[in-house]
Amino acid sequence: MLDATEDFTKRLRSAFGCFASGVTVVTLRDTAGTPTGITVNSFSSLSLDPPLLLFSVGSQQVSCRWFEAGAPFTVNVLAADQEKLAWQFAKPLKDKFEGVGWREGVNGAPVIEGTLASFQCRKWSIMEGGDHKIVVGEIVDFGATDGDALTFFRGSMQQLPHSSAA
Ligand SMILES: Cc1cc2nc3c(=O)[nH]c(=O)nc-3n(C[C@H](O)[C@H](O)[C@H](O)COP(=O)(O)O)c2cc1C
């Protein structure tokens, strides 16, 4: 049986899952220079001038230390056909890039191929956010293309077609 705190946390996690979001993979290099990354849906645009974005990373995540150390990173917004990749970067794999096409961006972080958009960043600031750190990135370069989106809602992924009527 769950105690009161566990029940609260379980219900809160489930309630947070009611918010439908896109799916990103934030890529960077570890201290040895090896490409790595983490699936993130806490991404948000933040500011146009200066150009800023944000996301949160769990303090216990392996990659958290590299964000804190100031590694440049890229937020890759996944396309509808990239669900496999989203789950791959959400696992504690030694080589997260196995079978993934990518190129090096201007900031040195990997840019994943076939995404809807990518935002290459340098660290702007990192703030405390409970059991997460809020990472704010300054966008140094970006790209975007047309296509259908990958979404995350109540623990599962769906495809959202881009309406050409818009
Ligand atoms: C759809 C989805 C969204 C996620 N969003 C976040 C997030 O915003 N922040 C976070 O810290 N972890 C998030 N995770 C969990 C991480 O991707 C996962 O724990 C990953 O293995 C962490 O990698 P690391 O241990 O190499 O740092 C998400 C997972 C999924 C499947």
Please provide a written account of the structure:
It is a single chain. The protein is mainly β and 166 residues long. The protein has one domain (23-149): Electron Transport, Fmn-binding Protein, Chain A (Pnp Oxidase, Chain A, Roll). It is built from 3 helices and 12 strands, in the order H-E-E-E-E-E-H-E-H-E-E-E-E-E-E. Strand 11 (149-153) and strand 12 (156-160) form a beta hairpin. It is globular, with a radius of gyration of 16 Å. Bound molecules: flavin mononucleotide (FMN). Flavin mononucleotide binds at residues 23, 38-42, 55-58, 61-63, 86, 90-92, 152.
Which key features would you list for this structure?
166 residues, mainly beta, Pnp Oxidase, Chain A, seven-stranded antiparallel beta sheet, binds flavin mononucleotide
* Spatial ordering of strands, largest sheet: 3-2-6-9-10-5-4
Describe the sheet with the most strands: 7 strands, antiparallel
User: What is the terminal-to-terminal distance?
Assistant: 50 Å
Name of the level-1 CATH class: Mainly Beta
Supply the CATH architecture.
Answer: Roll
What's the quaternary structure here? single chain
Which descriptor suits the 3D outline?
A: globular
Query: How many strands in all?
Result: 12
> Helix proportion of residues, in percent?
10-25%
Bound molecules: flavin mononucleotide
- Estimate the mean pLDDT confidence: 96
CATH level 4 superfamily: Electron Transport, Fmn-binding Protein, Chain A
User: Which ranges are low-confidence, i.e. pLDDT below 50, for 5 or more consecutive residues?
Assistant: none
Number of domains: 1
**SSE order:** HEEEEEHEHEEEEEE
What is the tally of helical segments? 3
Structural class: mainly beta
Strand content: 35-45%
Radius of gyration: 16 Å
CATH T-level topology: Pnp Oxidase, Chain A
